[in-house]
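Q: I'm writing up a methods section and want to include an example of the input and output format. Could you take the sequence below and give the corresponding predicted structure tokens, formatted cleanly so I can copy it straight into the document?
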Amino acid sequence: MGLIDSPFQHITEWESHQLYLPDYKELRASEYQEYPRGRVVFSQQSRRAIIYMDKSLFSAENKQKIKAYFEITDCLVLWKADPHYRVFSDTGY
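A: Here is the clean output for your methods example:
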């Protein structure tokens, strides 16, 4: 399909590999479902990044932070809501 994706599985990286350490030690006692998740893939065909996340997070500020974190500077971005990536808690996200 021409999509470039990460092989990471959120729950495995969170619970088994604790990928967020050492930078975010305060997350150690939190649960996987407490924080918003999403996925960034790249379409080779359209030369676009496709970012999936809960539609409640589609603010200009959040979009800019995500683009900066993933260093997306030289391609268009297609923002998509996906029911798989939902916000489940009242953590302020």
